[in-house]
Design goal:
Chain A has ten helices and 17 strands. Chain A is α+β, with helices and mostly antiparallel strands. In chain A, the strands form four sheets. Chain A has a seven-stranded antiparallel β-sheet with strand order 11-17-16-15-14-13-12, with helices on both faces.
């Protein structure tokens, strides 16, 4: 009665105009944030980290997604498992630090004790009628794709993760992620809705004006442009870039390095896209001098100049695999207007800091770029909250993947939140 | 079911007892705060600042009101304009600092560029079908009344701002605000609902016990009293004060300085009141020694002892214009329980600090008074939140203008929020 | 529609499985927190402090419970009274510090003045029609039980406080609380729902693994155990403990010191339990060496080794009375996930610090224990918020009083919140 009545989620989804940004409700309303958590993050494969996060038996990593807390555990048989981080007695959180090394998992409250496969092996004073076998840790679906760890919090996980795994494993295994080590992890809390963080990742229209570091290794023409606005010289440069991509893809694939685009951002439940992109200048790595920042190359790679394999997933990750290092990005919503961007940098596990690599050189491009993007996310969130905001048009040339993110998101909401309600 | 059911806004308005404070719901409920923002602040003329905030071409001031963000711009033709601070592309906030100086308004995200009259003059990669003329900045109503800037966020603004302007311009122009300069701006966040801040401003019943500085220039009898409680001496003093007001008004008006009360606090959409009040002792200014704090007087004023022209507006401002300086107060609600009080002090634009004026002397009375009032606002908010709070009676002698504020507020809610709902 | 529909409070109460923890909604939902405040804290006797909080005429203590603020006042006739801390004029909070010493209670806003019995004795400018006698402070029910102060915010207070007072006064008066003095008060904000704080207090299953200090004076067998898990030696120790309790109760009661258990935790509106428990080793006090920490004993006590009288009340307190000192705990909910634990330590009012007692020795056991419990409360709250949380079983041997707390809580909600709604 007092303020304008809120539109239903179904109405908002139905009235969305293709090719335009989403209405502000999607970025601000607590109930839509809850729907995002319950249906997008609660029912899809979510990227959470890498096998090198838990390299040894007994290593534990805690991943908090919304109100869920999940333990990622390396068991004694070297299998990686996932469990809810909740004691089956009174519900205490079991592991309360981001990482831990344990023998068994022991609850700090009343010392209930679980093995790394989740079995409850000790609980005092519970009496003879108590059945320990009914009180093991609750498992969470986990799938490692060439070392990238995806979890699914739903009872039944979408099975097309197998399609993604089949397609992506050949691309990824070249870089041998399981034998890499994390050299830096940075948590950045962006002041915007998680979809603004994702949309920012899905276009480089903003790169020229905002990313002086990233635009050194990345070709300006690699992310779309309006041909009408280019002069003759620029059109020739754009054509040379297109030719370079084709030539490199032919060369790399002939050498057994899968490189050509695969694109399923909007047409699969477990949406993704990949392509190996040439790097400008020295052609080697996403560094300030475009040369490798780590002399010891990943896997069995011999040629440092093999561009960068980029891999994007819906709803929450992107990754860049170079010959010398890997940068991997995980997005976790914190509130309608706050988002965690967790970035990990990895090099070969045997590389020695100061000898084989300089940490600053490995990380400096994306540390700067993340800061710049975080500021842009905050700007957009801030403006979108105004009642005067009206969803503007996406560029047909440079924002096509933003549009695909929106299509995937709305389609998945329709298939989950709206289906449940129907 | 669990707690007591909430009263509807319509019921709360209908059952309000005249002459008594409002029920606590008005000061605490988030939905009523939203109604206040949507209907009181969203549909009425709101005082936001002064022309000297943007004295030069290209000067920009950002005004945030609730979720709105507005740009106040001095265009190259010296006109002051207002626009929503939201890019028409993806909604990014355009200006992210309180003040800026610009040539054009350029969005930091994808460099869309707008002229100071709001026209979109540049947007890359949007293709040939894109119509720039449909994507200019959205304008906001703006009206300068003798240099005081009012905006209205509604599509259609109340037209009786013209009545206010016609009545007030002769009173205000004496002090030549457009040729003054801001010498200090202080933002004070009061821990109370905005209506508590306003009600505190509308009476001086609390002055004696709380404002040792302000009661130096202000006459104790100027804000009402109960004749029954005065002794013979006090009654004589009160009569002398009444005679002084009449004599001064006659003198000032004869000299071409409008001074007599105009009062439309509860009977107009754009409610206001004004009166030129004598100042105690030296009679010159609201300073600790009651003498002017700036030797260079405003406008063409020759006589420093011309009292203080006070001007109050509904819903969110008050102002004191003396011969030497101006103090102007703008109230912006931040949350149901937090309010921004932005105070500006101005002197003649050619006055030189340290020569013509000492900044501390200009500001010390109201800096102290604002702090004291902020503490009182917090006390009242805190007590009102108790379920034991019961709206008490206003003094018929000293709280009449508080009652008029409540009448105006409830009347405007009835005409807007309740009308929309009916 | 978007997230799972919330269960009604009635359904949640009805479907609770006896012998298991409560569902997470009880610990997290804002509407259930409001029901707790309105019905549990708003309609029952709440422990708030001790007579030594206001030892002298004019002493005032402010107690904030949810949105209520209450003045506890020692009047000139030495009676302790309670009033709402809200001015009857515009609702300002009257006393804005935790404690104060006053002649009358004067509102800081417009100087309305009340006597310590609540009568309004001064209000300026209100006119001849104003009736002061209708504008006295609103009283709050207050009952001192041997110096422990309970208030009830409801219009009609449960009358079985008299049963509690009749039963408990003989137990408590031995320690002469009114002639003790507070030597330390500590406010600890625990990061959990108030019921988690209470449930933690109602079992010592967690003590062995978490409370190295508290388990020095407390016997391990005093709080329940599963006989199946004890070996022969442990069973003999348990029997010796049971015999010790019986022998001590016989001895203390013969000496006029009531000691045997009274238990009404779940079967009375004003639920409580008491028992005088032996202390381990020297048998004197809850200190690190189990000896008295204050040489001057309380009341007329001669024998320092009289164990500890423990007294627990629903919904919000527990207390330990030893021969030398008293520790008393008051729980006040702050939000669904934050709880204030206010702990006071008292010794004989004539004891001299540094001569009769060392403050650290008096307080060190419970200061450490509170910190440990606060961490456990946070762990449980954190885990319970996961959608994967499922209420686990209570130990039939060690968590019986937790179960009784849950029974009392659900029963009282049924009799108040659900009754009102029916």
């Amino acid at each position: 009665m007092t303020a304008a009545a809120q539109a239903s989620l179904a109405d908002l989804v139905a009235r969305r105009r293709p090719g335009r940004a989403l209405e502000s409700d999607f970025y601000t309303r607590p109930d839509i944030f809850e729907a995002d958590m319950a249906h997008i993050f609660g029912k899809h494969w979510i990227y959470v980290g890498v096998e090198p996060d838990v390299p040894e038996e007994g290593d534990v990593m805690v991943v908090d997604i919304g109100k869920w807390s999940v333990l990622i555990v390396r068991d004694d048989d070297m299998a990686v498992r996932a469990f809810h981080n909740v004691c089956r007695h009174r519900g205490a959180r079991l592991v309360n630090t981001p990482k831990a090394v344990v023998g068994n998992i022991v609850c700090g409250y009343h010392a209930w004790t679980y093995r790394l496969d989740g079995e409850l092996i000790h609980a005092d004073h519970m009496g003879e009628d108590f059945d320990r076998s009914c009180h093991g840790l609750k498992p969470v679906h986990l799938r490692s794709v060439a070392g990238l760890l995806f979890i699914c919090l739903a009872e039944t996980a979408p099975d097309d993760i197998e399609y993604l795994a089949a397609k992506m494993t050949p691309y990824l295994k070249v870089h041998d992620l399981p034998n890499a080590k994390i050299v830096k992890t940075v948590d950045l809390i962006e002041k915007g809705n998680w979809k603004i963080t994702m949309e920012n990742n899905r276009e480089c229209y903003h790169c020229g004006a905002n990313h002086p570091e990233l635009t050194i290794p990345l070709f300006a023409y690699g992310f779309g442009f309006s041909p009408q606005t280019l002069d003759e010289t620029e059109l020739q440069q754009a054509q040379r870039y297109a030719d370079l991509v084709t030539a490199n893809h032919d060369k790399w694939e002939a050498a057994g390095v899968p490189s050509r685009e695969i694109e399923h951002l909007a047409d699969r439940i477990t949406g993704f896209r990949t392509e190996r992109l040439p790097i400008d200048r020295a052609g080697q790595s996403q560094t300030l001098d475009t040369q490798v920042a780590c002399r010891k190359l990943l896997g069995g790679i011999n040629d440092p100049a093999m561009g960068g394999l980029s891999f994007w997933t819906q709803p929450n990750s992107w990754h860049h695999f170079m010959s010398d290092h890997i940068v991997t990005f995980c997005v976790i919503p914190l509130s309608p207007t706050e988002t965690l961007l967790r970035t990990r940098w990895l090099v070969h596990k045997d590389a020695v800091e100061g000898v084989d690599y300089d940490l600053d050189r490995v990380t400096e491009v994306w540390e700067a770029t993340n800061q710049q993007d975080g500021a842009l996310v905050a700007l957009q969130q801030s403006g979108i909250e105004s009642p005067a905001y009206e969803a503007g048009p996406y560029s047909p040339y440079t924002e096509g993947l933003v549009e695909k993110f929106c299509q995937w998101y709305l389609g998945r909401l329709s298939a989950t939140a709206l289906q449940d309600a129907a």
